[in-house]
Design a protein that fits this description.
Elements: H1 8-21, E1 27-30, H2 36-43, E2 47-50, H3 61-64, E3 70-74, H4 83-89, E4 94-100, H5 125-134, E5 137-145, H6 154-159, E6 165-172
Parallel strand pairs: 1-2, 1-3, 3-4
Antiparallel strand pairs: 4-6, 5-6
Protein name: Methyltransferase
InterPro entries: SAM-dependent_MTases_sf (IPR029063)
Length: 179
């Protein structure tokens, strides 16, 4: 089903991580519009609903009104100005999220043709961990992987050894009621 090429390698690792932690009986709210990975999740037996392209920095109503058992967010938080707000608005107690890691030898991604397809944040793993913790999540499992290319040069060689993607399974920390 997958080859070891972009984005198939990323999809393979993501699907394996998701099936390790989430039952196919779970209803999933996937942040972001339907995309090729949505179809892969459905092929694996997951029931998936996507957000509809609303600006999640401004409108979190779909997240707040969802009755999903799990929220997934695959390469979405780096596009948001305020991922903290989105993380706090999630009602469910399970989250699977992945991000591209900041590479010290490469600038943040910025599409020259699509004004919305840009990375506002490219996190180091500890920064993403801290963001999740501050938003009330506890990381249960995490994984990183590289994204080698077949190009020639110093940066392509570094991509063979430097992790590019980071995925976490996190659970909501029980809120202590104030008395």
């Amino acid at each position: 089903m997958y080859e070891n090429t972009f984005p198939n390698k990323r999809f393979k690792h993501t699907a394996e991580f998701l099936t390790k932690h989430i039952s196919t009986d779970s209803d999933i709210l996937d942040l972001g519009v339907e995309n090729p990975f949505t179809e892969i999740m459905k092929q694996h037996g997951f029931k998936v609903e996507n957000t509809q392209g609303e600006d999640l920095d401004i409108d979190t109503s779909t997240i707040e009104n969802s009755n999903a058992d799990v929220v997934t967010a695959f390469e979405i938080f780096e596009h948001l100005l305020s991922p903290f707000t989105v993380l706090k608005s999630i009602k469910t107690d399970k989250l699977v999220a992945s991000i591209p890691l900041k590479l010290w030898f490469s600038s943040a991604y910025r599409s020259k043709t699509d004004m919305l397809d840009r990375h506002y944040h490219e996190f180091e793993d500890w920064q993403f961990d801290w963001l999740l913790e501050k938003a009330g999540w506890k990381i249960i499992d995490r994984q990183k992987w590289t994204n080698p290319t077949k190009k020639i040069g110093i940066r392509p060689i570094l991509r063979w050894f430097t992790p590019r993607y980071y995925i976490v399974y996190a659970e909501r920390i029980a809120q202590i009621p104030k008395s």
